[in-house]
Amino acid sequence: MGRGIPKQFLTIGGLPVLVHSLRVLEAAVSVAEVILAVSAEDREYCLREIVTPHGFTKVRKIVTGGEHRQDSVRHGLEGINDDTDVVLVHDAVRPFLTEDMVEQVIARAAQHGAAVVAIPMRDTVKQAGADGLIESTVDRHGLWLAQTPQAFRLALLREAHRKALLEGFHATDDAQLVERLGHRVALVEGSGQNIKITRPEDLVLGEAILAARSGR
Question: Model-level pTM greater than 0.85?
Answer without folding.
Answer: yes
